[in-house]
Amino acid sequence: MELRKRGENAFLITVKSQILMCSKAQRSERALGVLACKKRKRRLAPRVLVGGLGVAVTRRAVVDELP
User: Fold this and answer.
1) Domain regions of the chain by residue span
2) Residues 27, 66, 23, CA angle at the centre, nearest 5°?
3) What are the tens digits of pLDDT across the range 31-51?
4) Residue 23 in contact with residue 14, Cβ under 8 Å?
5) How many whole angstroms separate alpha carbon 32 and alpha carbon 49?
6) What are the residue ranges of helices labelled H in the chain?
7) How far is the C-alpha of 50 from the C-alpha of 37, rounded, in Å?
8) CA distance 12 to 24
9) 20 to 30 A from 36, CA-CA: which of 10, 49, 52, 60?
């Protein structure tokens, strides 16, 4: 597994030249964070565990969604 830089502002996570994630393509990662928080927003002290390989896009979406 490698973290590669593409251009000035983009990063890729690759395995054997296969691209797994790109820091420029974030729509699905954000949507996952928003979906995970949908019902939890109504709780007094909501908690969500985010794990994976990523570049913290899902985590950022969760932080933005929860109080």
Assistant:
1) 25-67
2) 25
3) 988 998 988 888 888 888 888
4) no
5) 12
6) 27-37, 57-65
7) 11
8) 9
9) 10
